[in-house]
Design brief:
single chain, about 475 residues, alpha/beta, N-terminal domain of MutM-like DNA repair proteins, Helicase, Ruva Protein, domain 3, Rossmann fold, 3 domains, five-stranded mixed sheet, five-stranded parallel sheet, 17 helices, about 40% helix, DNA-binding, FPG_cat
DNA sequence: ACTTCGACCTGCGAGC
DNA sequence: TGCTCGCAGGTCGAAG
């Protein structure tokens, strides 16, 4: 069954159930499973007390008295459970530890892949090959940015098998690799040494956070099975790509694809996770929010730090300026009435026309949409060429306009519903009814928050909002761009 | 020293 | 129904 969060769940459950239990005798039904050979294994364990249970990567370490450690790996399907002695042995029970309180600790494993090694405490890191070269645990203290940068720069292989290799990082398996790559928008076949620093940082944050969340959710339960040590995992309910082939991506709605990478089933979003020849160093942060949530306030903070901001509304105006292809198409489609005497677009006339007719609005969007996209891509290409580290794409309808897939990360500016309503009424001098109409015309703010990587809470003071932006800049590795260090 | 690929096992569901 | 095939949360060792 397990990756790190599941093994940790087992460790905690077993600690509760059999911590301090004493073993009277051991039965081994599948001898290949244990080392040293079965008779010796049984003899060594008889009379021993389980003093504690540790974990390293996906290995369980049972610590007994007299400096004895049993290293146990569950591989694909190994499970421990505790039951009263005398219960009939099932087909797939391979090792039974009889306890002195009339209970059994049983190990079952349909595929017989699991292994148990008994050795002197301390020898496990010298004698068990998997433990010998185990990489750091995915925690903030042990998995450092410096370490990641260093190992990433040295490997040309695809990132997916690289992350599955326990000697690089401990504990990740097929599920959490797919999940964290999706969270970080990295294609599973992207060569590891081509991944830019900002993505290494994102990946690190996502790995650490995802593993932590999964442990808190008691791990992921794939095949339906419930554990005898208390809880069945519930983290499968939080999976973003694993097992979701054909279902819409939670960020951009594109169907999730399933392929094979390094002989393992691999799930990813073809639009969010694009294989890049030269990924470049530029990170694009999508900035969005709801009407009157204060997105422009946040946008101004970035501008104040000289961080380039591409304003989607401004681009939308540029593509219909006099002399543009966009304006010409609007004239052809909607008539000369849409053009004012001075040659500029009559926004009021166009607005009135499309406001009441959804099909006209769709027609307008099909003209301007591609032009905006092209203009944004052109601007981004310029920043990429100049190796600008961070660019903000400020777009009120980022999700609605299907712009999410092109972003490296998405920041949503959020306020409580009531605050949004009050601010909109005050700002635009609207009645409650009018304000609600405008709010309800957009994708619900809660839905945007759900799709966000970072949420900025703008319900308090400007200073508090700014502090959140500054914190994000620091955590994302852009601390050097902050010019007013006093904050 | 690198990466790739079969082997280790059993059960289950899809497709014929 | 019965058969074959492919697939499953992992790792190791042989072969290229």
């Amino acid at each position: 069954m397990p990756e790190l969060p599941e093994v940790e769940t087992v460790r905690r459950g077993l600690t509760r159930l059999v911590g301090n239990a004493k073993i009277t005798s051991v039965d081994v039904y599948y001898e290949k499973m244990v080392s040293p050979e079965a008779d010796q294994f049984k003899k060594m364990l008889a009379g021993k007390t389980i003093e504690r249970i540790d974990r390293r990567g996906k290995y369980l370490l049972f610590r007994f008295n007299d400096d004895l450690t049993m290293v146990s790996h569950l591989r694909m399907e190994g499970k421990y459970d505790v039951q009263p002695d005398g219960n009939p042995i099932t087909k797939h029970t391979h090792v039974v530890f009889h306890l002195d309180d009339h209970r059994d600790l049983r190990y079952t494993d349909t595929r017989k892949f699991g292994r148990m090694h008994l050795l002197k405490t301390g020898d496990e890191t010298k004698l068990v090959s998997g433990l010998k070269k185990m990489g750091p645990e995915p925690t903030p203290e042990t998995l450092t940015v410096e370490y990641m940068k260093q190992i990433f720069s040295k490997s040309k292989k695809a990132i997916k098998p690289f992350l599955l290799d326990q000697s690089n990082i401990a504990g990740l398996g097929n599920i959490y690799v797919d999940e964290t790559l999706w969270l970080s928008r990295i294609h599973p076949e992207q060569p590891t040494n081509t991944i830019p620093e900002f993505q290494i940082r994102q990946l690190r944050e996502n790995i650490i956070a995802e593993i932590k969340r999964a442990i808190e959710g008691h791990g992921t339960t794939v095949h339906s099975f419930s554990t005898a040590y208390g809880e069945a995992g519930e983290f499968q309910n939080h999976l973003m790509v694993y097992g979701r082939k054909g279902e819409p991506c939670f960020r951009c709605d594109t169907p999730i694809e399933k392929t094979k990478v390094a002989q393992r089933g691999t799930h990813f979003c073809p639009d969010c996770q694009v294989l890049r020849k030269d990924p470049g160093v530029t990170m694009v942060l999508g900035l969005t929010g709801g009407i009157a949530t204060g997105k422009s306030t946040v946008s101004e903070f970035f501008k104040a730090y000289q961080i380039p901001v591409i304003d989607a509304d401004k681009v939308a105006r540029e593509v219909v300026e006099p002399g543009t292809k966009g304006l010409k198409e609007i004239q052809t489609t909607f008539g000369w009435q849409m053009i004012q005497p001075d040659g500029t677009l009559d926004r009021h006339a166009l607005g009135t026309l499309v406001f009441s007719q959804p099909e006209k609005l769709a027609q307008l969007n099909s003209i301007t949409g591609p032009l905006i996209k092209k203009a944004v891509v052109r601007k981004l290409r310029g920043y990429r060429r100049r190796q600008v580290p961070l660019v903000i794409y400020d777009a009120p309808t980022l999700f609605e306009a299907h712009g999410a897939a092109g972003m490296n990360e998405i920041m949503v500016v959020n306020v409580p519903d009531q605050v949004q309503l009050q601010r909109l009424m005050a700002r635009d001098h609207l009645s409650k009814k009018e304000a609600l109409e405008r709010i309800n015309a957009q994708m619900p703010l809660a839905e945007k928050v759900k799709r966000a990587d970072v949420v900025i809470d703008n319900s308090d003071s400007v200073d508090k909002t700014k502090a959140q932006v500054v914190r994000w800049l620091n955590e994302a590795g852009f601390g050097s761009l902050i010019t007013d260090k006093s904050n």
